[in-house]
Amino acid sequence: MERERFEQLAKEALESLPHDFKKYIDNVAIMVEDYPTGSARRSTGTPGGSTLLGLYHGVPFKHRGPFYGNIAPDVIVLFQKPIESLGGDEETIRRRVRDVLLHEVGHYFGLSEKELRDIERSSGDES
Q1: For the chain, how many structural domains are there in total?
Q2: In whole angstroms, what is the distance from residue 82 CA to residue 9 CA?
Q3: What is the per-residue pLDDT across 100-114, written as a single tens digit (0 to 9) for each?
Q4: What residues are paired with 31 via a beta bridge?
Q5: pTM of the model
Q6: How many CA atoms lie within 13 A of 4 on its CB side?
Q7: Residue 126 pLDDT greater than 60, yes or no
Q8: Phi, psi of 52 (to 5 degrees)
Q9: Rounded to the nearest 5 degrees, what angle is found at the Cα of 14, between the Cα atoms of 10 and 20?
């Protein structure tokens, strides 16, 4: 898939979030990269051979105090090639992009990996 189309899917996924969540998302850049770097893998504890689909880097919303401001944006990175490598047509990739973005937005709100996996399992929506 062309990068521009993949980025459009990411934009659509962000726009599709419920207003009750979107109104709290501020100072966040959504980026697309082909693959995670070695440092991204190390920072998440992702072992070699495992697939890393996305990454959140920043100060989680629940840890921001009254003096939070004037800082560089938090970043959510979606890794295009690993997402595409899981296969499927454009609609499948669209759903996967949304799932990965939702997962990383969960980290933005301060949820741990375990909490997110529990939520995904209970909703039957494991990515």
Answers
A1: 1
A2: 15
A3: 999 999 999 998 889
A4: 77
A5: 0.86
A6: 0
A7: no
A8: -105, 120
A9: 170
Which helix or strand (DSSP H or E) is residue 91 part of?
helix 90-108
Residue 120 has pLDDT above 90, yes or no: no
CATH of the domain at 12: 3.30.2010.20
Tell me the CA distances in angstroms from 54 to 10, 13, 47, 64, 65, one per residue in order. Answer: 12, 14, 14, 22, 26
70: domain range? 3-123
Query: Could you please report the per-residue DSSP string of 17-50?
Result: S-HHHHTT--SEEEEEESS--HHHHHHHT--TTS
Tokens of 19: 């207003």
**21 and 105 in contact (C-beta within 8 Å)?**
yes
pLDDT in tens, 18-72: 898 888 898 899 999 999 988 888 888 887 777 899 999 998 888 887 777 778 8
Q: Phi then psi for 102, rounded to 5 degrees? A: -60, -40
Residue 96 CA to residue 10 CA, distance in Å, equals 10
